[in-house]
Amino acid sequence: MSILGTKVRSGAGAYAGTKYAIEALSEALRMELAGTGIRVTAIEPGLVKTELHDRWPVPPAKSLNIPHPLVPADVAECIMFALTRPPHVNIPRLMVVPGEQQL
């Protein structure tokens, strides 16, 4: 999920709506599984540089003025952080964004 699960910007309403839905489903699942030992975490990254943007005429990093977007390894580290917490620790949401990205 991206930060558009908690934020909306002009022109991205439908995309943000799908992310809001995933956030709600994740939260409901987390509550339903509470006490079972199964943990649910929604990882919400900001702009991540991937090949998805390679063919865009103006890549999001440029249009959003984010010279140092996240890379997939940054998101992987967040996932590993959530997975390696002690069993009694649950992280419902973890948002990570590039330093230049405004929320």
What does this entry show, briefly?
Helices cover 36% and strands 8% of the residues. It has 103 residues and is mainly α. It has one domain: Rossmann fold, CATH 3.40.50.720.
How are the elements arranged and paired?
Layout: H1 13-33, E1 42-45, H2 60-63, H3 72-83, E2 93-96
Parallel strand pairs: 1-2
| Strand proportion | 5-15%
Count of separate structural domains:
1
**Secondary-structure element order, N to C:** HEHHE
Low-confidence stretches: none
Shape: globular
Biggest sheet details: 2 strands, parallel
Reported CATH architecture: 3-Layer(aba) Sandwich
The CATH superfamily is known as NAD(P)-binding Rossmann-like Domain
Query: What's the number of helices?
Result: 3
Q: Under CATH, the topology is which?
A: Rossmann fold
Number of strands: 2
Evaluate the radius of gyration.
Answer: 15 Å
Arithmetic mean of pLDDT: 90
CATH secondary-structure class? Alpha Beta
| Cα end-to-end separation | 15 Å
- How helical, in percent, are the residues? 25-40%
State the secondary-structure class.
Answer: mainly alpha
Strand line-up in the sheet with most strands: 1-2
Using brief descriptors, characterize the structure shown.
2 strands, single chain, 103 residues, 8% strand, Rossmann fold, globular, mainly alpha, two-stranded parallel ribbon
Care to describe what's here?
- The chain has helices at residues 13-33, 60-63, 72-83; strands spanning 42-45, 93-96.
- The chain is globular, with a radius of gyration of 15 Å.
- The chain is mainly α.
- A two-stranded parallel sheet has the order 1-2.
- The protein has a single domain (3-96), classed as Rossmann fold (3-Layer(aba) Sandwich).
- 36% of the residues lie in helices and 8% in strands.
